[in-house]
Amino acid sequence: MAIDQIPLRDAAVSLGPEQHGYPVTTPDRPIEVAAWVHTRLGHRQVTAEAVAWTPRAARIRYLDEHGRQGFAWVWASAVQRR
């Protein structure tokens, strides 16, 4: 069963390549994290998985309150291992 994607209007704001930087590390298995994201409705903490990272940021996969999947690059300081 496919997971619905979060519509762009509801998705978390993501950092761009010039912000998250390089090199990008991609683990064999995602790491469980809690992360702060910013959406049009404000800031909120989500349960997520870190699927990639750089020295400055992490790319997370998370589910919104409707069970839809989203991805976002967020600052490393907004992420904590679970």
What does this structure look like?
A hairpin with a 5-residue loop joins β3 and β4. The protein contains 1 helix and 5 strands, in the order αβββββ. The relative contact order is 0.31. Strands 4-3-2-1-5 form a 5-stranded antiparallel sheet, with no helix packed on it. The chain has one helix at residues 17-20, and strands at 31-39, 42-53, 57-63, 69-75, 79-81. The protein is mainly β. The radius of gyration is 12 Å and the shape is globular. 5% of the residues lie in helices and 46% in strands. The model has no long low-confidence stretch (mean pLDDT 95).
How do the strands and helices of this protein lay out in sequence?
Elements lengths: L16 H4 L10 E9 L2 E12 L3 E7 L5 E7 L3 E3 L1
Antiparallel strand pairs: 1-2, 1-5, 2-3, 3-4
What is the assembly state of the chains in this entry?
single chain
Uncertain segments are none
Radius of gyration: 12 Å
How much helix is in the residues?
under 10%
Q: Strand arrangement, largest sheet?
A: 4-3-2-1-5
**Order of helices and strands, N to C?**
HEEEEE
Largest sheet data: 5 strands, antiparallel
What is the residue-averaged pLDDT?
A: 95
Give a count of the beta strands, DSSP E runs of length 2 or more. Answer: 5
Task: Give me the number of helical elements.
Answer: 1
Strand content is over 45%
Global geometry: globular
Instruction: Measure the end-to-end span.
Output: 27 Å
**SSE-based structural type:** mainly beta
